[in-house]
Each structure stands twice: as C-alpha cells, then as structure tokens.
Amino acid sequence: MRLAGRTSRIATSPTMKVSATVDRLRREGVEIIDFGAGEPDFAALESAKAAARDAIDRDFSKYTPVAGIAELRRAICERYRLDYGVDYQESEVILSAGGKQALFNTALALFEAGDEVITHSPYWPTLTEQIKLAEATPVIVQTRAEDGFAIRAETILGAVTPRTRGILLNSPCNPTGALISERDMTAIAQEAARRGIWIVIDLCYEHLIYDSSTPHNLPGVLRRCCPEQAVICGSASKAYAMTGWRCGWTIAPPGVVAAEIALQSHATSNINSIAQKGAIAALTGSQAPVVAMLDEY
Ligand SMILES: Cc1ncc(COP(=O)(O)O)c(C=O)c1O
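A: This is the predicted complex of the input protein with pyridoxal-5'-phosphate.
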C-alpha cells in the first residue's frame, strides 16, 4: 500500500493510544484509572449545557460562518479583556475544533518546508507532530526537573538560527505544569519582534494555575512586545470541562486569522453550532465553577 510520505513522518497520538487502550480494558471489565488524556473529571458547566439545549430547541443547527458566530468571537475578546486587560477585535479570532485544530491551523498557516520551530521538552506530543505536518522541523529545547522544568528565555533564544520561523510555547505546560515567567516571555517576545519570528503560545491550560503568585499575563506581554507576530491558541476543553464539545480558538493578527479561515473553510468549516452557544454561556457567565474545579484538582 502506498501512502503519502507525510503519514510516515508522524506518529499516532500516544495520548489517544492510551485512551483507546483504557477504553478496551474498561469494556473487558478492568477497573483502571486513566492518566492519558487531560480529561477534567467534571461535567460541563450547567450554563453551557442549558445554552446548548436551548440551541437545539431553537433549531440553531445550520452552518455558521467558518470562524464562528460574531457573538462567540466577541465573547472570547471580552474574556481576554477581563482576564488580561488586552483588547482584541473580532477579526483577530477564529473558533476551531479544540485547541488542537487551532494549533494545527496555526502551524499550517505559518510554517513550511525549511523552517525551524523551537519548542520545549517534555511536551504534549501533538505539538511537534503538527510542526512536522506543516513540513517544518521541530527544534527541541530540553527543560529539566532539577530546574522545575523552567522555560528560560536564554535557552529558547540560544536555539535560534537563521532558519527559525517560530517559537511555540506551552504555558502552563502539559505535562510539567511549568509556567513561563513574564520576564522570560518578554525577552523572547522582544527578540522575536526584532528578528521577525512568530511566537505561538498554547494557553489551553491557562485557567489551571495553582501558583497564583506567579504573574502570567502572557497575552499582555505579547500585545506589548510583538503584536504583529503573536498567536494565542486557547480552548474551552480544560477550563470548562468541555473536552468533547470541541471548542478552541486562535487569537492572531487579522492576516493570520484570514489565512486560517481559508484553511479551515476547506477542511472542517465552522465548529458545531450547538457547542458555539454553549461556549458563549461558559465564557460570559460566572467563572466561579472554574475556580471550584481548580480547588478540587
Ligand atoms: C498542551 C495541550 N494543548 C492543547 C490541547 C488541546 O486540547 P483540545 O483540543 O481539547 O482543546 C491539549 C489537550 O490535551 C494539550 O494538552
């Protein structure tokens, strides 16, 4: 069987393999605790469920704009304004099927053959595979347990070469939980601005921070230091226990968002219309359940 070369350059998500194995063992009656996928042990927010039920009852079940309905794009802008004091416009937001598709769209929109993209290890395996799917080369900077897995500007910037096209950071980091400090983020962002390198931040775990004394306003730093080159990928999955709803987003300069809309328009179109209504309720309603989940964790 002859398959396209790109299929042999990537490995199936090991996380998904763990999930499939757990599923099989459970069906065989084995009692097992799954440490594979980052799956919140909670039901989705009641407000999201009610809004989704209402959406079904009102037949809100047609195609929507590829980037998502305006009300949801605005809800994301408002959430980030409240959380970080940064103003984004609707034209800077696209909704995708989870943070995973947001990151994938971003890799396809920004990177290509010959490019190097720096990221840090240990990492969530999808990040490097997506870089490879974009035909670029991941360059891995190791973080260390004895250093708290800190993501340091000097080691990230030490890996920059003339081929570096992007720096992909995940903070809070899955699997280490490490946070990049605003100081390190500033140093990286300033250098990226000087060299014309894209900064992509995976903020999918942004609401699961235990150490509230560490300032983590990364959107604020990016807005200040490299607004033209910053891409944020976020998600309702972990914060609102909505993993199966598949609702993530990219916040980026309008040109990047336009490119991602074009890509997504030929792949999956809009995310599920019902989930969009649920996500609006989660994003605009009380954030108390998020704090309650964090306390429980
Ligand atoms: C670091 C990281 N980023 C992004 C995601 C994407 O999650 P989702 O596609 O459910 O938003 C995950 C999922 O586990 C993750 O661990």
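Residues 70-84 form the longest helix (15 residues). The CA atoms of residues 14 and 225 lie 36 Å apart.
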